[in-house]
Amino acid sequence: MKILVLGGTVFLGRAVARQALAAGHDVVCAARGESGEPVDGARFIRVDRDDPGGLAALDGAFDAVVDVARHPHHVRHAVAALAGRAGHYTLVSSGSAYADVATPGQRAAGAPLLPPGYDDDPRADAESYGRAKVACERLAAEGFGAGRTFLLRAGMIVGPEDPTGRFDYWVRRSARGGEVLAPGGPGEAVQLVDVRDLADWIIRAAADGLAGPFDGIGAPMTRQEFHDGLGAGVGVTQSLTWVDQEFLTAHEVAPWAAPRSLPFWLPLPQYAGFMSRDVTPSIEAGLRIRPLADTVRDTFAAFRDATHIDAKHGLGIDEEIELLREWHAG
Q1: Helix (H, G, I), strand (E, B) or coil at 294
Q2: Can you tell me the mean pLDDT for 281-285?
Q3: How many other C-beta atoms are found inside a 10 Å radius of the C-beta of residue 204?
Q4: pLDDT exceeds cutoff 90 at 313
Q5: Domain ranges of the chain
Q6: Which of 2, 144, 239, 310 has most Cβ atoms within 10 angstroms of its Cβ?
């Protein structure tokens, strides 16, 4: 296939380009070129997607287009430039598009969405990002045809080259050993997907002509299984101390991602559905998930300094020690 990746220089886009090349496909990456370098072997074309005519340098037809856009006007411009010469279109959307994040076990096909935000700034906050992604989905399906558009609502993507630092926090923390502050309880749900597994599915879905909405994330695991996988991946036996959310909230520990936070932790019950989606349709449609320990091992191997703590995400060493001290003091 001749595959156009709108992006292709950061994380998922890079993984798609790299794995498509490895599978023998012809890959073109189109981006500003300000966020990273394209992978070796891909043809790179510099474009400005804010410009309505910014994709004019892309000539010819493409068997598949993969788009990670979050700005609705970027999708609108892609439709105008490519709708007549793209065989299959993948819009990488987000689990943030869902309106109901409290109900566990929902599926992509029937879950309610946020209202579309055609003029929302997706960088403003999580809800604006979700509304913008819904608008992107609608523009894509209308412009490229619902029967040729794969709406991939990605969840937490992890693995090597992850720019967010959220998964990295837990890998580094597990590698340090000692007593680990584990948020919530061991039976709570966690969901994630290795970037390489998602890229692999995107490429195969294009070849198969898969269309419609699907969740791009692995099946839920328990928080205990999550930490077991972390320990197995770094080769360290986990010593976990489970700390409930009431204590964490009272001590101003932020959920999900921020300084003084615990990534992958969200308050319950209001977010009980965010990491417990039923992904049976995705698995049946071809999504293949590797063991968590393998993702951890490969992520850990890419670190130059395994002991480094990213102050932007997670707890600092002293912060965790103090919180554990107060927890045990009761």
Answers
A1: helix
A2: 98
A3: 16
A4: no
A5: 2-158+192-216, 166-191+220-271+292-325
A6: 144
> Which CATH architecture is the domain 166-191+220-271+292-325 placed in?
Alpha-Beta Complex (3.90)
Percent helix, strand and coil across the chain, each rounded to 5?
Answer: 35, 20, 45
Write the pLDDT tens digit of every residue in 117-128: 999 889 888 899
Measured CA to CA, the distance from residue 6 to residue 67 in angstroms comes to 5
Mean pLDDT of 158-183: 94
Span 214-261, pLDDT tens digits: 999 999 999 999 999 999 999 998 899 999 999 999 999 999 988 999
One-letter amino acid of 141:
A
Beta-bridged to residue 179, according to DSSP, are 239
Alpha-carbon distance 274 to 296, whole Å?
22
Both tokens of 233, joined, read: 């991946």
The DSSP call for residue 71 is S
* Distance between CA atoms of residues 193 and 293, nearest Å: 12
